[in-house]
Amino acid sequence: MAVEVNIYKKTVLAGLWYEIPIFRLMLGMCPTLAVTAAVRPALTMGLSVIFVLVCSNVAVSLMRNLLKPHLRILMFTLAIATFVTIADLFLKAFQPEMSAVLGPYVPLIIVNCIIICRSEECASKNGLVVSILDGLSMGAGWTIVLCFLASIRELLSAGTIFGMQVMPTAFVPWTAMSMPVGAFVTLGLLLGLGNSLGKKRT
Amino acid sequence: MFLKIKYFFQQSWLLIVASFCFGLLIAVTNAAWSPRIEQNKTLKINNLMTRLLLPKAASFTLTAELEVELAKGKYVKTNIYKAMSDGKCAGWAFNAEGAGFADKIELVVAVDKDFQKITGFDCLASNETPGFGDRIKLPPYRDQFAGAPAGKLKLVKVGNPQDIDSEIVAISGATVSSQAVVNIINNSLIQIKKYMQEKGLIGNGG
After folding, report:
1. Interval B196-200 mean pLDDT
2. Is B204 among the domain residues?
3. 3-state secondary structure of A61
4. Is the CB of residue A181 less than 8 Å away from at least one CB of chain B?
5. Chain A residues with CB inside 8 Å of B127's CB?
6. What are the tens digits of pLDDT across the range A89-115?
7. Among A96, A157, A175, beta carbon nearest to B44
8. Domain presence at residue A27
9. What is the DSSP string of A143-196?
């Protein structure tokens, strides 16, 4: 029992700190750069990824004993594509504005490498509970970084967070922060910060 | 031969079964949500049209559908809506699209009842550079179209945006996006106007 609890704890902590996707694994970088101009789309994107990650982990974990090694990537992609399509339809039906903002980046979750990485690394080797926990914690870790990056960019590019004005009116918006260059600069600085914090810990 | 088929199924049965199950899942979800997705689209177009023609218009009816030629051999489906208020025609609105700076731009354009004057346009979808090209959605650029003649528009780099005429003053630093909107409106407006006159839906006076 104690061993099991340990595995759960390890899985959760891995997603949230030790293997946090963007800082440690350096996976899922494309949406990180593309949809972080404002917090709301970033959060929507993060929640969609959590949904897809958990569902595909469950599907892969359930069929892990039936997988043929040379067909496994095909099966992962099949499961991921299904849940991404569902997430995309959901956003179109219930969050049409967000769907318009995110545009092609929702279907592109299919090729988000965190999801296939977790299918391969965790779900195809572990039971259902560990897979679900892994999906949740990896997704949450990714979403937290995404929202953090997006709030810095939204604050500097528009003076708002979640569309609410927080900077004084005298603040001159830095338009560059909402463009790709802002994403690269902010991400680079955050990665540097993350690495220097990580070094002190070990 | 038989062995080969057996081998094939041994290897791939899971893939076949899973494809079927996942396909079914998508089909069910799509069937459940597609009416809502369609409704969202109509609602969005309706909202834009109301904003462009208010307070004159009370309701919109889809009157005609037309394939507008974008370039040689390339067509886009256009819906033409008739705006009614107090039982009379208050104007027309239609969707239009074309190439922008980074991606295609989709617009809703509204004109008055005789196709004499443009009443305005709005963006359904665009992906122009933030801070530069995306100012096509904002005044003063956008306001130049309200009241402009429904004929051939021309983009100029210097001028007074307050003057409402067929000359549209470009946004400085975003000439390509400014030109794109003018081109899209020119292209679809002229074709639609011709079509409407041929069908007798509007007078030939314009």
Report:
1. 81
2. no
3. helix
4. no
5. 103
6. 999 899 888 888 887 888 888 888 889
7. A96
8. no
9. HHHHHHHHHHHHHHHHSEETTEE-S-TTPPP-GGGGSHHHHHHHHHHHHHHHHH
| Residue at B100 is within a domain | yes
Range B184-202 burial, b when 16+ CB lie within 10 A, else e: bbbbbbebbbebbeeeeeb
Question: In chain A, pLDDT over 70 holds for what percent of residues?
Answer: 97
Cα–Cα distances (Å) from A125 to A63, A112, A141, B22, in that order, read: 10, 20, 21, 22
For the cut 60, the answer to whether the pLDDT of residue B4 exceeds it is yes
**Number of domain units in chain B:** 1
State which residues form the domain around B150.
54-199
Amino acid at A1: M
Does the beta carbon of A65 lie under 8 angstroms from any beta carbon of chain B?
no
Q: A70: domain range?
A: 33-201
pLDDT at residue A161 is higher than 60: yes
The residues of B whose Cβ lies within 8 A of any Cβ of A are 11-12, 14-15, 18-19, 22, 25-26, 29-30, 33-34, 36-37, 40-41, 44, 125, 127, 129-131
Q: How many domains does chain A have?
A: 1
Render the burial of B63-78: b for 16+ CB within 10 Å, e for the rest: bbebebebeeeeebeb
Amino acid letter at B175?
Answer: T
pLDDT (tens digit, 9 = 90+) per residue, A166-199?
878 778 888 788 888 889 999 999 888 888 877 7
Q: Does residue B26 fall inside a structural domain?
A: no
